């Protein structure tokens, strides 16, 4: 590896130099979605952040095994009902119909954001045997107890055996947990409020249920990630990621379960993304301060004045460090749209530039090399995309000045210009995961662009003739085909979304 990679380890609350368990290899586990409803924008931010982390680890030369689960059982609502069962009941469907519908929707959304698929995507329902075996191990180690067909993790017994380690990740203490604990139905048999279910007895009306040594039931939500990360990455592995909201209780309980079953800590580095705000406030359906990815793609929301493509949104996400809160506002999105357009324009301009200097660079050539090296250096500092992007825009200014003649191509060697093109291409498209809009892939993208030029010319003609019916029909037909047309003061734009 060329440069040292540092990352912020939530477990120890500090930046640490990343040292994988096995040289050249990385085991990465990220908590995936509970597939009972459409994926929301905060999820998209989290999974896009870890997509960039995954991409950069591969760029560094690591062979990465990326595991991201699908939760299709065990995640309870505040009323104690399984979210999958609730989704099935409300939609009058089988739980696995619900799971399939929203898993497909999740995959489509990840593809829209150009997120790479994980290497392994296990489902909780496909790993019931492994979860039962882990419960048996925890029981055998004296760190759980069974009551009336349910099995609970014994937090006090765990703390006695493991140096009061429960709460290390989240900073929660048992006294606090007692005050904050909620009584879920069927969990009134716990010895202590901080204990949590690792296997739950199924009530008569519970749809998702499996046979176990303790009777018919289903696994606790936290258990699946412990069982599946262990199966695919080992009892100890490199990185575990997820949203900040999962630190407690989900990730805290994962750590306890791993240690309780095999005496191991599971992940060595814990990475957490921060929350997504809108207009400075937490998103909330109850007060209307919310927006879906689809509404952003189409612009059909009172919170925005324009439509924003998946790549503009991805660019917008790059502007905030994954550990910082991100505030979604229309003004910020407008700025991102312009910034993304400026970046893609500079990339296109760069393709037409050739270095005319000798073998040795002049001042400009050296600046180009330094700026790019600094951009990659920012990525080595806990995947700092906003600072890396700022460096890229320093490069954009130089590219535009070279094209406009304010800087001389005689100051750049041909070899350096070739290297800059290659290195910037890697950063923009392989690491940041951006795509050029309206021109997805080679000839197909060029064909689409030409067709759209013709269609928009015809629509402009209809508008000039005040044939509003034809103009709207063309716009609506394109929308049905997945192409969003937006009329603005600077002309008509189109995006695939």
Output the keywords.
four-stranded antiparallel β-sheet; single chain; 15 strands; four-stranded parallel β-sheet; 497 residues; alpha/beta; 16 helices; 15% strand
Shape: globular
Q: Which regions contain 5 or more consecutive residues with pLDDT less than 50? A: none
Number of strands: 15
Helix content: 40-55%
Q: What's the alpha carbon Rg, rounded to whole Å?
A: 26 Å
Briefly note the structural class of the backbone. Answer: alpha/beta
**Oligomeric state of this protein:** single chain
Distance between the termini: 38 Å
Strand content: 5-15%
Mean pLDDT: 90
Main sheet strand line-up: 4-3-9-10
Could you describe the largest sheet, including whether it forms a barrel?
Answer: 4 strands, parallel
Query: Total helix count?
Result: 16
Describe the structure.
This protein is an alpha/beta fold. The protein is built from 16 helices and 15 strands. The protein has helices spanning 41-59, 83-91, 95-112, 128-140, 155-161, 174-180, 223-233, 247-262, 293-298, 310-318, 330-351, 363-380, 385-404, 414-431, 442-464, 468-480, and strands at 6-9, 14-17, 25-30, 63-68, 144-147, 150-153, 196-201, 217-219, 236-243, 266-273, 276-278, 281-282, 326-328, 483-488, 491-496. The strands form 5 sheets. Strands 4-3-9-10 form a 4-stranded parallel β-sheet, with helices on both faces. Strands 5-6-7-8 form a 4-stranded antiparallel β-sheet. α4 crosses α8, α10 (310-318) crosses α11 and α12 (363-380) runs antiparallel to α13. It is globular and about 75 Å long. The model has no long low-confidence stretch (mean pLDDT 90).
């Amino acid at each position: 590896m060329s440069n040292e990679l540092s990352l912020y380890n939530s477990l120890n609350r500090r930046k640490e130099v990343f040292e994988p368990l096995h040289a050249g290899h990385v085991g990465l586990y990220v908590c995936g979605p509970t597939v009972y409803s459409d994926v929301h924008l905060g999820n998209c931010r989290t999974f896009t952040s870890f997509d960039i982390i995954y991409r950069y680890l591969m760029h560094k030369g690591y062979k990465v095994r990326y595991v991201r689960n699908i939760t299709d059982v065990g995640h309870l609502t505040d009323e104690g009902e399984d979210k999958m069962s609730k989704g099935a009941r409300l939609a009058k469907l089988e739980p696995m119909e619900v799971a399939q519908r929203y898993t497909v929707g999740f995959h489509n959304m990840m593809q829209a954001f150009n997120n790479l698929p994980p290497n392994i995507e296990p489902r909780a329902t496909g790993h019931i045997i492994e979860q039962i075996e882990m419960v048996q191990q925890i029981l055998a180690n004296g760190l759980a107890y069974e009551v009336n067909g349910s099995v609970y993790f014994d937090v006090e017994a765990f703390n006695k055996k493991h140096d009061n380690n429960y709460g290390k990740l989240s900073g929660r203490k048992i006294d606090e947990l007692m005050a904050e604990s909620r009584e879920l139905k069927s969990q009134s048999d716990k010895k202590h409020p901080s204990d949590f279910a690792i296997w739950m007895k199924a009530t008569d009306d519970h749809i998702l249920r499996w046979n176990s040594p303790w009777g018919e039931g289903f696994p606790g939500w936290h258990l699946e990630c412990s069982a599946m990360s262990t199966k695919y990455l080992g009892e100890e592995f490199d990185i575990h990621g997820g949203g900040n909201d999962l630190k407690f209780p989900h990730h805290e309980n994962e750590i306890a379960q791993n240690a309780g079953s095999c005496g191991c800590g599971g992940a060595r580095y814990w990475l957490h993304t921060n929350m997504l705000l809108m207009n400075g406030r937490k998103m909330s359906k109850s007060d209307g301060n919310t927006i879906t990815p689809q509404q952003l793609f189409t612009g059909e929301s009172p919170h925005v004045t324009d439509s924003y493509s998946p790549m503009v949104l991805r660019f917008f996400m790059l502007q905030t460090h994954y550990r910082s809160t991100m505030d979604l506002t229309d003004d910020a999105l407008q700025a991102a749209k312009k910034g993304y357009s400026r970046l893609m324009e500079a990339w296109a301009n760069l393709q037409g530039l050739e270095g005319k200097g000798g073998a040795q660079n002049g001042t400009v050539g050296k600046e180009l090399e330094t700026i790019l090296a600094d951009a990659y250096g920012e990525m080595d500092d806990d995947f700092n995309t906003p600072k890396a992007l700022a460096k890229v825009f320093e490069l954009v200014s130089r590219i535009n000045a070279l094209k406009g003649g304010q800087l001389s191509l005689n100051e750049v060697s041909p070899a350096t210009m070739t290297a800059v093109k290659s290195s910037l291409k890697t950063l923009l498209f392989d690491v940041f995961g951006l795509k050029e809009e309206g021109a997805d892939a080679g000839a197909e993208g060029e064909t689409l662009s030409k067709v759209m030029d013709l269609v928009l010319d015809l629509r402009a003609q209809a508008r000039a003739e005040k044939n509003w019916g034809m103009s709207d029909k063309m716009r609506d037909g394109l929308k049905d085909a997945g192409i969003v047309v937006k009329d603005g003061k600077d002309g008509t734009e189109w995006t695939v979304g």
